[in-house]
Amino acid sequence: EAQVTQNPRYLITVTGKKLTVTCSQNMNHEYMSWYRQDPGLGLRQIYYSMNVEVTDKGDVPEGYKVSRKEKRNFPLILESPSPNQTSLYFCASSSSGVYNEQFFGPGTRLTVL
Amino acid sequence: AQSVAQPEDQVNVAEGNPLTVKCTYSVSGNPYLFWYVQYPNRGLQFLLKYITGDNLVKGSYGFEAEFNKSQTSFHLKKPSALVSDSALYFCAVRRGGGSYIPTFGRGTSLIVHP
To answer: Which of B94, B100, B104 to mutate to test the interface with A (most CBs of A within 10 A)?
Structure first.
């Protein structure tokens, strides 16, 4: 089954404790991205990657890091989480080309205390 | 800069009635427009998109959307709503010419009453 998986689905942590949210897709997609969803703000892109070893900032990259060492994986790293990073996070993938629709993971709900 | 507006936070409709979820956009160049649906505790699912050609686009689950260039709108429609259509709907735009940062609207909650 074609899918995007994320882990963990739920995470409660404390300020400053480094964490990684994993994302993996099995569709051989070139393009992957991370979003955060906040009430009243919709989805905002954090980082995206157009292929292996190619990443770029989205609209709200501050406080986040990403890496793309393999085509299928695109982890999101929070080196020193803060309470304002409490949010619902989605990973997405698509074939290259701005006209292609994205496939989204199930989401990771992160709470930073 | 590109932007998307979904002017209604919530749309209420009775089952069996037609529904419309509104979306307007602003982008320089040719727009690529998308609708996604999010059911509770799930990720977004693609519904339909406009790239070029026919202004009326048909998608999944009986949904369709009409691209109107002069009004810069891309409203989502369905002739007969189902209770199971109740969900959060997002409109998104990407700019033709290579921008890989899509802009999403804030979302519209559709509630279909039995």
So the answer is: B100
Task: Read off the amino acid at residue B74.
Answer: F
Residue linked to tokens 């979302």: B107
pLDDT tens for each residue of A51-82: 999 999 998 999 999 999 999 999 999 999 99
Average of per-residue pLDDT across A35-47: 92
Please report where in the chains the tokens 């899918």 appear, as a residue: A3
Check: CB of residue B107 under 8 Å from CB of residue B21.
Answer: no
How high is the pLDDT of residue B83?
A: 96
- Burial degree of B66 (CB within 10 A; 0-12, 13-18, 19+): middle
A89 pairs with which residues across the strands? A36, A108
